[in-house]
Design a protein that fits this description.
Layout lengths: L5 H14 L6 H22 L3 H10 L5 H7 L8 H7 L4 H12 L1 H11 L7 H4 L3 H6 L6 H20 L9
Helix pairs in contact: 1-2, 1-6, 2-6, 2-7, 6-7, 6-10
């Protein structure tokens, strides 16, 4: 994982888990978190494929969660303090792409192949077991996540349709 993208990956994963919580229980929470983090990692590597891209998003910031919060109806209480701080690192496009990957195993496998080259383990994303699916039922539900997925799905599909020689593994 590219260390420069760590804040974006952590914050966007956290946002997804709050918007689409895991099934009850600590094991389910961990399984859902692993799946969210894998999807967000792959999406971030696709979105920011070079060290320069990662440096630019780190310097400029990814945009925050305000629009996503509004879309899912979580904007009724404005975050303050620490809650506000981590939300500034949420990347809307990365969140949208991650949801697309979580709801389509075929798309997830394509994305992993485009960025990873077999160097990392993304099995819970690409080949989730039934327990994984149950733990992240809301996060993987295409009808529930459609409002987020549709935001930038076309960009993801265009990115994956292009020759992937431009992609470098972070």
């Amino acid at each position: 994982m590219c260390a420069d993208l760590s804040p974006v990956i952590a914050a966007t994963s956290q946002w997804l888990l709050r918007a689409y919580p895991a099934a009850d229980g600590p094991l389910n929470e961990v399984l859902a978190e692993v799946q969210a983090r894998q999807a967000v990692t792959v999406a971030a590597w696709l979105r920011y494929p070079t060290a320069m891209d990662a440096a630019l998003v780190t310097m400029a910031g990814p945009g925050g969660s305000a629009h996503l919060d509004w879309i899912v109806g979580a904007d009724t209480v404005l975050p303050e303090g620490e809650e506000f701080a981590w939300r500034t690192w949420v990347d809307e496009t990365v969140a949208s792409w991650a949801v697309c990957l979580l709801t389509s195993s075929d798309l997830a496998r394509q994305a992993v192949a485009a960025v990873d080259g077999g160097e990392h383990e993304f099995r819970r994303l690409t080949l989730p077991a039934e327990r994984d699916r149950q733990a992240a039922a809301l996060l993987r539900h295409p009808d529930l996540t459609e409002v987020v997925a549709e935001l930038h799905r076309d960009q993801l599909l265009a990115r994956l349709d292009h020759d992937t020689d431009w992609v470098s593994s972070p």
